[in-house]
């Protein structure tokens, strides 16, 4: 076991104690080497439970937030998932642990972040995750319908195209709001296209571009 492995194991123990997380989600966080996804200058803090800067004024969410989002989405093996906001690719890797890398489709606004995330994902064994540079508000229609879709940046509302690309009975999750703080909202898509919403508390995310 390396020092990083020990730090990660300790982090997962803390998350297990402090949050109501399913065992599969804890195992997924325990499996993904977060230090490989963050810039070298902040690598020593990779296993602190806090957000970290990843360049372009963007941040990787705190581990507990990634874990909570995965938990709220109740991701099952084989679920097809759309992620809006790849960032450094860490959250996509945790999702990949839960559903299988080939089922994860992620859209990133900044082309250079998308490229770096693609490289890191390949180097860490998650090369099956698909990353596209572009505007996530449009979703990724080629691979729809999705069982699950989530945003890692705050939006005023679930983007219409993303809602349309989720199958009836599928679930969306996003920080919704326009201020510095937002509300984490999940929504099940009904057959008629309307959404059955549930609020999960206040959060703070970077805004959707
Ligand atoms: N999940 C990421 C965290 C990303 S922070 C990780 O694990 O690192 C939010 C990301 O959303 C940023 O990388 C930002 O560039 C991206 N983003 C913002 N607006 C977007 C848009 N319209 N489409 C796609 N990505 C967007």
TrEMBL record:
Record's keyword annotation contains Methyltransferase: yes
Main location per the UniProt record: cytoplasm
GO molecular function terms listed in the Swiss-Prot or TrEMBL record: protein-L-isoaspartate (D-aspartate) O-methyltransferase activity
Subcellular location, record wording: Cytoplasm
Superkingdom of origin organism: Archaea
The entry's keywords: Cytoplasm, Methyltransferase, S-adenosyl-L-methionine, Transferase
Any GO BP: methylation
Pfam families named in the record: PCMT
Broad enzyme group: transferase
Recorded catalytic activity of this chain's protein: [protein]-L-isoaspartate + S-adenosyl-L-methionine = [protein]-L-isoaspartate alpha-methyl ester + S-adenosyl-L-homocysteine
PANTHER family per the UniProt record, alphabetical: PROTEIN-L-ISOASPARTATE O-METHYLTRANSFERASE, PROTEIN-L-ISOASPARTATE(D-ASPARTATE) O-METHYLTRANSFERASE
Family of the protein in this entry: Belongs to the methyltransferase superfamily. L-isoaspartyl/D-aspartyl protein methyltransferase family.
Name of the featured protein: Protein-L-isoaspartate O-methyltransferase
Organism: Haloarcula nitratireducens
Gene transcribed to yield this protein: pcm
